[in-house]
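#help-structures
NK: newbie question, is this the right format to request a structure? protein is YifB family Mg chelatase-like AAA ATPase
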Amino acid sequence: MPIFGPFTGSGKTMVAKAMPSILPPLSRDEALQVTRIYSAVGQVPKGQSLLTRRPVRSPHHTASPAALIGGGTIPRPGEVSLAHLGVLFLDELPEFPRQVLDTLRQPLEDGNVTIARAHSSIRFPARFMLLAAMNPTPKGDMPVDEVSHRQMQRYLDRLSGPLIDRIDIHVEVPKVPYKQLTGERAGTDSATMRKQVFAARKRQSDRNGGTLKPNSTLTGRELDEHAPLDDASKEMLRQAMDSLNLSARAYDKIRRVARTIADLETADAIAPQHVAEAIQYRLLDRGL
């Protein structure tokens, strides 16, 4: 669940939109879950009985809390449920009203959303990958003086600390140099990255006796079992906790990300370099 920044036109939106192309297809059980949700709102395409592609939702920043979370006199699923087992992409994140963004806290934590009414309450599934893009200022550039630094802080203050704390990865996308724009540079294509993702998920499945349990859903006790840290990694994480004033939630998120990095490298054990990389992804804890 990354946040990208900090220059406009640096490719944040392009990277976020390319993310679904490296995700594995839905299993049959997952396809049934997604199809049930879309059937409830009448959005299953005509002539198609089963949705087999992971959903990707991109609500505009003018969306209301009910549109994002769900609601109505007769409760209907919102964007977070329509993105279940898929991707929810929020472009220009600070432009969303803070009260709307704070409604994401429960589904990000629990994987579902509960809508209560006087006569009843209903729970919708909402386990999605949150992708968000943002700039440090409304103008889309980095501050250069004290005035613009204050503007940046006011802009970033639109995001609450508890919401930022629930986001696993914060990634900075730097400005693209002219030479890279005009020259040819080979990169990793989506097909290659998809194979790496498939291999990492298989390692996760093998660790759980053939049942896929993504690293993002591991509890603290399961992390102790499947993602133990050696003494050097523990000391590195302790120093990061003290210097960055990280929360207990961020502590577990770093361990989950480090376990995933190790899986992508086909490493059986988490090494200090995996922990160091995971700590670097807590950009907004350090400040831009």
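mod (FA): yep, format's fine, and the tokens are attached above. The chain is about 45% helix and 10% strand.
NK: thank you!
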